[in-house]
């Protein structure tokens, strides 16, 4: 058996080991957004609500203040005037009623009621106008607040460490923050409705207290059961949302897999749709079951709340009649008390309802705020040194472990690349090549050891300035839904304009692609958008490889840059690579070992370690992993020797 055949045999042995491994069925698990939302549910109590609501309203108005100060100022002024006119209206009611009652059948005294009736009509009209103005201002502020919240969230996401995406909770927290953005548009409306209700209640309370002070505590007593029922109900709903979070996430994920274009072919040819749909249905049924239980619990709470509120209200009305019957208040005052009590009930209802809405929105907004302030604990927080075009990039005894991983992916790796040099990195799948690229380009930071650019630790560099000196073509490069020009310049054209774009396109073979496009560089490369053009994977790769040729960066990292290319395009790129190196340090990852002959040096990786280093001819002529892989790639005869062509 040849050495190559030995290895093939070993590999089949490894496959047997895998088959013999105990079968363990793992389940998808998601972190709950924020992780501590169950604790937040504990905030849904009357006391904490009373404490929290003012701060929520303050937060809403401070967010609104950031987007439109004038509108916030006018809105608050309208609220105050509306509250005052509400109280004036109620006082005018007493006045008008007492005149009307006193005049009884003597119509000659009716004109005495005119000032009070005029005040009543005036305040009602003013309140109606102010209501319209308040609504218009809220409508103006809501979308602006939402946009501001969204902008802050997106900024926080792009300012987080790349490693954030490897933390299991990051995406969930982002989702939760997104929900916070969605509800942020409701905050101003809810806050202003809450304030309006409060103003109505205060106005009614002032009037009631002036009529007969005892009516005030009675009124407050009537409010308690209604408030408790609303808070309890809201808590039940919120807990149901928490309990169904995992299933709702699974449903979102399945929805995406069912309709995403990239795998739509496999969903069909693998007849996978029924299986995915059955999993979707199972999750949906669990969500419905939990929601049904919550709805039933809420209904029970509402019935008890309504009964208690009814009893308390009867007590208040009874008190009014008692006061009237015992002559403690006049008939006019009793009439006004009726109006004031109705007004108070409306205010109270609003206070509880909008307060509850505001609290719920506040819980989601907390998720948003946590994400914005700390990007789920992953905010980019590195040094401020601005690097120049790097002349020497080095890794010294670098180990790296992915978040939540059980062991290191890289083990004490030493590596360097200099300006003008091309270094190829090779190794088997999973040996750590892409991970090494992420450390070189500062996307990830070393767990131990140090990565330096011209002697300065990458952790001390300003990351954005560093990435302006970096050009990375990853294995899975982005296909931006933009024009061919933007896909090459990445929205950062240089002074030479299209001349530089065309030069870069020539270097990668993208010029042949662009020539066939109906609007040349201006063609929209996005089939999924109306009017866009679809490219083949290889054509896309030519566009992607033109990016580093266009970008004036000091470090060029290419991870399998020609995997989808035909022989002619691949040849063009590798023969042009030396020209691209020029003033750049180039690191190239490839499985096609023939391509490594263009490199000045080859670094061979195995299980996260550098196991060999040297020039192409040295490595293929000395025993070791490189020679082994090279022979496997060259020697298809070994495969036939195993009888596979039978
Ligand atoms: N985001 C991640 N979180 C946890 N582990 C990861 C992550 N990315 C990669 N790994 C692990 O790190 C190891 C090395 O992966 P890496 O992508 O660097 O290998 P590679 O040599 O580039 O492989 P290939 O040749 O297949 O591209 C693998 O075992 C992989 O499971």
UniProtKB/TrEMBL annotation:
ATP-binding found in the keyword field: yes
Location of region: Disordered: 1-20
Signal sequence segment: none
Domain ABC transporter span(s) in chain numbering: 393-632
Bilayer topology term: Multi-pass membrane protein
Gene Ontology molecular function: any one: ATP binding
Lineage: superkingdom: Bacteria
Transmembrane segments: 71-92, 112-134, 194-215, 301-324
Biased composition (Basic and acidic residues): 1-12
Keywords associated with the record: ATP-binding, Membrane, Nucleotide-binding, Transmembrane, Transmembrane helix
Cell compartments where the protein resides: Cell membrane
GO annotations of cellular component type: plasma membrane
Transmembrane found in the keyword field: yes
Identification of the protein by name: ABC transporter ATP-binding protein
Pfam family, one: ABC_tran
Native source species: Streptomyces montanus
């Amino acid at each position: 058996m040849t050495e190559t055949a030995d290895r093939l045999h070993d590999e089949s042995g490894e496959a047997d080991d895998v088959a013999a491994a105990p079968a363990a069925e793992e389940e998808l698990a998601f972190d709950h957004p924020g992780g501590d939302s169950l604790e937040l549910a504990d905030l849904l109590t009357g006391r904490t609500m009373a404490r929290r609501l003012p701060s929520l309203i303050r937060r809403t108005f401070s967010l609104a203040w950031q987007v439109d100060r004038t509108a916030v100022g006018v809105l608050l002024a309208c609220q105050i005037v509306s509250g005052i006119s509400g109280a004036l209206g109620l006082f005018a009611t007493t006045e008008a009623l007492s005149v009307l009652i006193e005049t009884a059948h003597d119509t000659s005294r009716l004109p005495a009621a005119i000032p009070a009736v005029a005040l009543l009509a005036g305040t009602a009209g003013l309140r109606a106008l102010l209501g319209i103005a308040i609504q218009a201002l809220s409508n103006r502020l809501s979308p602006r607040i939402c946009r501001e919240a969204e902008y802050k969230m997106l900024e926080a996401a792009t300012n987080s460490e790349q490693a954030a995406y490897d933390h299991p909770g990051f995406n969930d927290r982002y989702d939760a923050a997104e929900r916070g953005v969605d509800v942020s548009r409701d905050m101003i409306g809810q806050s202003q409705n809450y304030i309006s209700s409060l103003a109505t209640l205060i106005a009614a309370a002032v009037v009631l207290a002036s009529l007969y002070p005892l009516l005030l505590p009675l009124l407050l007593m009537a409010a308690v059961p209604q408030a408790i029922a609303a808070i309890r109900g809201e808590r039940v709903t919120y807990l149901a949302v928490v309990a169904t979070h995992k299933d709702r996430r699974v449903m979102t994920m399945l929805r995406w897999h069912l309709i995403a274009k990239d795998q739509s072919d496999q969903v069909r040819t693998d007849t996978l749709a029924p299986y995915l749909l059955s999993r979707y249905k199972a999750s949906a049924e669990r969500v419905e079951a939990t929601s049904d239980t919550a709805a039933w619990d809420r209904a029970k709470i509402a019935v008890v709340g309504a009964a208690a509120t009814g009893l308390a209200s009867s007590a208040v009305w009874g008190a009014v009649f008692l006061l009237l019957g015992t002559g403690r208040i006049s008939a006019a005052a009793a009439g006004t008390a009726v109006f004031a009590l109705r007004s108070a009930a409306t205010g109270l209802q609003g206070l509880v309802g909008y307060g509850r809405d505001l609290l719920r929105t506040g819980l989601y907004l907390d998720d948003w705020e946590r994400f914005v302030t700390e990007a789920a604990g992953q905010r980019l927080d590195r040094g401020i040194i601005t690097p120049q075009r790097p002349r020497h990039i080095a890794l010294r005894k670098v180990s790296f472990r992915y978040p939540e991983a059980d062991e290191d992916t890289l083990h004490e790796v030493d590596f360097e690349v200099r300006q003008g040099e091309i270094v190829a990195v090779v190794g088997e799948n999973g040996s750590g090549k892409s991970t090494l690229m992420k450390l070189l380009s500062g996307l990830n930071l070393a767990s131990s050891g140090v990565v330096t650019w011209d002697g300065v630790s990458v952790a001390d560099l300003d990351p954005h300035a560093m990435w302006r000196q970096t050009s990375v073509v990853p294995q899975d490069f982005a296909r931006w839904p933009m024009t061919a020009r933007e896909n090459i310049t990445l929205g950062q054209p240089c002074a030479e304009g299209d001349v530089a774009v065309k030069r870069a396109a020539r270097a990668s073979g993208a010029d042949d692609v662009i020539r066939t496009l109906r609007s040349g560089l201006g063609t929209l490369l996005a089939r999924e958008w109306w009017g866009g053009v679809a490219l083949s994977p290889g054509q896309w790769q030519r566009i992607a490889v033109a990016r580093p040729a266009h970008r004036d960066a000091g470090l060029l990292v290419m991870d399998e840059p020609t995997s989808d290319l035909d022989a002619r395009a691949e040849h063009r790129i590798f023969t042009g690579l030396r020209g691209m190196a020029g003033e750049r340090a180039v690191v190239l990852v490839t499985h096609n070992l023939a391509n490594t002959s263009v490199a000045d040096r080859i670094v061979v990786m195995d299980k996260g370690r550098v196991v060999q280093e040297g020039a192409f001819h040295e490595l293929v002529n000395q025993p070791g992993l490189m020679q082994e892989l090279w022979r496997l790639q060259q020697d298809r005869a070994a495969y036939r020797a195993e009888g596979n062509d039978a």
